Amino acid sequence: MSTSTHVEHLIIGAGFAGLCAAIKLQEDGETDFLVVEKASDVGGTWRDNTYPGAACDVPSQLYSYSFATNPDWSSSYSPQPEIQAYIQRVAERSGTLDRFVFDTRFEHGAWDDAAQQWRTRLVGPEGERTVTSTTLVVGAGALSEPKLPAIDGIETFQGQLFHSADWDHGVDLSGKRVAVIGTGASAIQIVPELQQALESTGGHLDVYQRTAPWVIPRNDRTYGALERRVLRRVPALRKLYRTGIYWAHEGYVPAFTIEPRIAAPAKKAAAANIAKGIKDPELRAKVTPHFEFGCKRVLRSNTYYPALAADNTELVTDPIAKVTGDAIVTADGVERRIDVLVVATGFYTTELPIAEQITGLGGHTLADTWRDSGMAAYKGTTVPGFPNLFFIVGPNTGQGHTSMVFIIESQVAYLRDAIRTMRSRGYAAVEPRRDATRTWNDDLQRRMKRTVWTTGGCQSWYLDEHGRNTTLWPKSTITFRRQLAAFDPDAYETTPSNRKAVSA
Ligand code: NAP
Predict the structure, then answer these.
(1) C-alpha span between 374 and 365 (Å, rounded)
(2) Is the Cα dihedral 259, 374, 37, 500 positive or negative?
(3) Residues with beta carbon inside 6 Å of ligand 1?
(4) Taking Cα atoms as reference points, which of 158, 129, 164 lies closest to residue 45?
(5) 460: CA distance to ligand 1 center in Å?
(6) CA distance 62 to 56
(7) Which run of H or of E encompasses 367?
(8) CA torsion 39→40→46→50, rounded to 10°?
(9) What is the rounded distance in angstroms from the CA atom of residue 343 to the CA atom of residue 305?
(10) pLDDT at position 306 over 70
């Protein structure tokens, strides 16, 4: 069955980004919107990543909305269930959930230039439906499409295999031989939990490391009842605490973007973390990174190194040659038998699958537009050739050191001001000018050249196939916020409402 609806704003994704857009549009009286979500709940990455040990490595006081601070976090780095419950609570209290459409996939969105609107195909439990909208807001997330490793023979594995972002809680790991491929932010949270669970049941863990990451201690702290009570009663203190955490994290920006030597104390802390967690010099050498601090995401854990040093864990650094029906074989010919294979191998980040599903002016998809040049947008939010399309968490908005929620709120502020401007000036459509977009991105890429992400001697998910960093923001987040504080119509081609034709 195919039905058709019109809304002013169609928002894709019900994670931190989509929910923030919905709440803030509602505050502006822009109540005519739909949020389309492929899963059956809000939460995005915090709904999906339920692996053992999942927690945020940015303190919760900061990794939460500024307009919905939470005095009840249990600890500085709250676990995934608490973050998910927080998002659910904010969504329920916001009074916007009646406009969320769950279990519904965004199939395709195309700009209809004659009607000056987006025409979107959604597929849900009741079949296909078309929604037209003035704006299309993409809050689908940058880390939402799990990437499976291209390893010879992996499809022939007969045991249980799953991605870290799609944990199979039905698998009983007791006494099993488990392998984890990857040593990124997800893996270092999973490994200590698995090691302990397997140790108590006579199981074994192999960790396959391709590149040793930098891991600094995680200064986790459980909040006491008194502390929580004070934070609940004194919102000003909550705000002050949050601000303190924000500035402490912002201190990493110069080390990443200007001079890596500033990070010397953090490097020392990482070296001490290895020394504390591992006694064996050979294992210490294996986990010592060979690239500059910050080139890949800096990880935080107190328990990762001790887990690698445990008797029931083997850290394998020989490259994987193939996977067989019941084993992983490394290039040195050693075969290690396994029952369960966990791939913690990251996400599609520089080639967003959603780019294939969005068609702009002239019938070009976003993927066509970005094919040769790589992902690029104006202010990380809008793209030439795609009128009234707004990304929340778009190209070059990512952070390696602080809360993405800060970036999300900055982009939503820009979206709100764009909509206000369209209303007040009578624009049917706004599209960033190509010269403004080029200037914006040339500046970013010029700055990118001297960042540790480019010069630090590593390969990371920050870089695309041409070696361009199209994911991270190379300045302070306060600069990002300032630059997106107000919509700037001078940087846009605008179409007056009276030129809007009726769709055929
Ligand atoms: P990731 O950082 O991309 O790490 C993937 C790991 O898999 C890397 O160690 C990589 O090795 C390895 N790998 C990939 N393909 C492989 C192959 N074919 N053979 C062997 N090894 C392979 O992914 P992630 O750990 O899921 O983290 C992604 C991002 O999610 C993080 O950077 C972070 O932004 C976010 N995250 C955040 C938190 C948090 O606490 N806030 C927690 C988890 C994730 P190489 O290093 O050699 O490429």
Answers:
(1) 13
(2) positive
(3) 56-58, 143, 149, 151, 164, 181-187, 208, 210-211, 297, 320, 344-347, 459, 461
(4) 164
(5) 9
(6) 11
(7) helix 366-371
(8) -90
(9) 19
(10) yes
**Candidate of 345, 351, 453, 473 to mutate for ligand 1, largest count of ligand atoms within 8 Å of Cβ:** 345
Between helices 16-27 and 404-425, what is the axis angle to 10°?
A: 40
502's CB contacts (< 8 A; 6+ apart) are 115
Tens-place pLDDT, residues 360-384: 999 999 999 999 889 999 999 999 9
Neighbour-count burial for 431-457, b at 16+ CB within 10 Å, e otherwise:
bbeeebbeebbeebbebbeebbbbebe
C-beta atoms surrounding 57 within 10 Å: 17
* Interval 63-118: pLDDT, tens: 999 999 999 999 999 999 999 999 999 999 999 999 999 999 999 999 999 999 99
Q: Residue holding tokens 């790589």?
A: 374
Separation of CA 78 and ligand 1 centre (Å): 20
pLDDT, one tens digit per residue, over 343-357 is 999 998 888 889 999
Gap between the Cα atoms of 106 and 109, Å rounded: 8
Burial class (CB in 10 A: 0-12, 13-18, 19+), 39: middle
Residue type, 445: Q
User: Which residue out of 63, 143, 291 has the highest number of ligand 1 atoms within 8 Å of its CB and is therefore the one to mutate?
Assistant: 143
Coil/strand/helix, residue 249: helix
Could you identify the atom of ligand 1 that is nearest to the CA of residue 77? Answer: 40
Domains of the chain: 3-145+348-503 (3.50.50.60), 154-213+251-343 (3.50.50.60)
Distance 236 CA to ligand 1 centre (A): 37
Give the closest residue (by CA) to ligand 1 atom 17. 149
Measured at the CA of 360, the angle between CA 119 and CA 147, to 5 degrees, comes to 95
Write phi, then psi, for 218 (nearest 5 degrees). -100, 110
H-type alpha helices, 10-79: 16-27, 45-48
Q: Are strands 327-330 and 2-12 parallel, antiparallel or unpaired?
A: unpaired
Q: Which amino acid would we find at residue 418?
A: A
**Rounded-to-integer distance, Cα 347 and Cα 143, Å:** 6
Q: Is the pTM of this model over 0.90?
A: yes
Find out whether 316 and 336 touch, Cβ atoms under 8 Å: yes
What's the gap between Cα 468 and its chain centre? 18
Residue 258, phi then psi, degrees to nearest 5: -125, -55
Pair of tokens at residue 477: 């987040």
Mutate to test the pocket of ligand 1, among 83, 147, 148, 186 (most ligand atoms within 8 A of CB): 186
Token pair 């050693």 in the structure block, residue? 334
The region, left, alpha or beta by phi > 0 then psi within -120 to 50, assigned to residue 41 is beta
Q: Quote the ligand 1 centre to 297 CA distance (angstroms).
A: 9
pLDDT at 503: 37
Residue type, 37: E
